[in-house]
Amino acid sequence: MSWLLAADLGVFADALRFVADERTLILEKTWEHLKLSGAAIAIAIVLALPLGAWLGHLHRGSFVAINLANVGRALPSLAVIAIGLAFLGIGFANVALALVVLAVPPILTNAYVAVDEVEPDAVEAARGMGMTRRQILWRVELPMALPLIFAGIRTAVVFVVATATIAAVAGGGGLGDIIVNRAAYGLEGVVGAAICVSVLALAADFLLGLVQRLLTPPGLRADVHALEPDVTTGVTRL
Amino acid sequence: MSGGLLLAQGEPIIPDFGEGSDCVVENRFFCPDWVRDNWAGVIQPALLQHVKLVVIAVAIGFVLSFAAALVAHRYRLVEAPFTAFSAVVYTIPSLALFQLLVPVTGLTVTTVEIALVGYTLLILFRNTLEGLRSVPPDVLEAARGMGYTRGQTLWRVELPLAVPAMFAGLRVAVVSTIALATVAALVIPYGLGYPIFLALREAFKTEIVVAGGLAVLMALVADALLVAAQRALTPWASARRLA
Amino acid sequence: MSGAAAEIVFDRVTKRYPGRAEAAVSDLSLTVPAGEICCLVGPSGAGKTTAMKLVNRLIDFEEGDITIGGESVRSLDLTELRRGIGYVIQQVGLFPHMTVAENISTVPRLRGWEKGRTRLRVDELLDLVDLPAEDYRARFPSQLSGGERQRVGLARALAADPPAMLMDEPFGALDPITRARLQHELLRIQGAVRKTIIFVTHDIDEAILLADRIAILREGGVLAQYDTPARILEHPADDFVERFIGSDRGIKLLSLRRLDELELAPLDGAIDLRASGDTTMRDALSQMITHGSRSLVVVDSEGQPRGVVTLDALAALAE
Q: CATH fold of A14-223, please?
């Protein structure tokens, strides 16, 4: 336990001072971080959500849709970013692309499962009442599936915010720039940025949890752990 | 090992692959000769370190979550605080968590292991608890009616029936930890992440592809082993259902 | 406790749940003689399941006492008490992770029987409930039909040869054909093992078929009548009992009696309809109505005509 004696807990105080003193730098890096994450999430949603929901509506392609999350979980983000860098080169767009690759699986799988598992009785009843396929999708399946679809987005957001930190090694910018550059910012800078990125991730998770709860129809609220991270589709964090 | 080794933004990349074949010098997608030459010196040690990291982290995480789940199964009050704690840990980005532990435990394997253990808690705890609670009420009533004591019910009925849920949790935990452990290389020169990290500086494709590919392969193999182990342990779960 | 059947006595038992004004079981006294089946019947909320669960103390009680073979259930160790009473419930509650053989041997294993003896017992019980041991021993519950599961549940309850059994609507979830088959199986098995059985059901016809005695409970767990099925049908104690057993009690009564009990009229002309002497009067009546005949020939085991029974004679008995 000698490391405990050697522990330098004063660093945490220094780190907070660093954040206060360098708030311009921190704000600038946080903004970069959010831009990078936001771009990746937006692209991933546009690609994955309609596809997943449509496959779920057709009850087709379950093997691919479900295993995509498993494969996504096994992909080391560092390797994905490294491959992106090695093959596409350094920079914002390429890092964002690597993040999209990592954000697609949870969104697609959740959208698929959410729509696929809408109670067949409700769909049957809707058909019995004479709704068209399109009406069934928009008025029955999507509202009922919304909480779970959003859970997937939430998982992806927290995942991307975390992974964007590592993207710094490939020139993605963001708070990771400080964390991976101890030579320039010292341990207090590294720890200060680590605190900031943790707060960012926790805040994103919390806020999205609230939204998820609001999106859940009151009748379904009891069985949703809306304020907890979704581990069923699995997240590989960085 | 610190940020100083890392690529600062805007710095020009000067590829330097030393002596090597044409393949290596041209930095092609995959150079078998480089892998052959560096297997024993670079790749294999990193692979073994990676396995060690993951096995220790999942083993400790499993013991902690299992104990916590048993307590929470008996005393419901324990569930919410443990879930909240492990959910917060789970949400902190790994690179940040590693760095937050550095002032306490230094640039050591311990730092990495603590963080990796932390990430396994939520999934393992929740799955074990849900498994224990999934036992149908009629089965519990039959056990009670036949004179099973509380301990016998736990060990002979509830735990065996929780095994599939526990394995589902273990599979997610193991596969995630394998992927996650590559990030440890940003803190200490350890595991499969380290060759990736070194290769990153020079965008050396073969090393990235081999080390990254091995991490994915390891995850697939571990997952398959866990599925096989679960099948062997729970023959009743895969028994043919009556139509 | 094991082996020979034991008498079960409820002595002024009252069960109140905290925070509820009305008692679930009120001042219940009844004696179930050793080796008999006692059916507890009554509308929902009449406390029949509660009364049954007091016996193995799945529900505890403070007022009054219950004895099995003269011993108070409260003087016995809880787990010992439960291991000594067979317990069968509607959803069966088979352990999904254990094979049929492991399920059946649950209590013998809890009691530390040696392996050889347990194995023999399992085969013997599978034989008793009419499931070929070779075929069923190694199956898991998920590989059984509903009726087969309840047979295994019954075998499991009988495994350690308990002097008493508690059965909580065991056939309630089965389809009518399977239920009827299992009801007759239970009577056959009971003929062989002679246990003291407390059997909860909401189905009065099931009670009439199975019970040596029926205890009819009303709301609040008050005993309305406790008697043999025939006496309850012939002399309902009050309006509640009369309503509960239904307006067709005359016909129900006929289901308890067989043609052998009748004074037969002499053979008279050609009658096509025939039935053996052990046919219930209800079935005979039903046959006559179905075939539009006003009489029926009773034959002996060789098929030789013994006499004639008329529709009028049966109708008179049912009044």
A: MetI-like fold (1.10.3720)
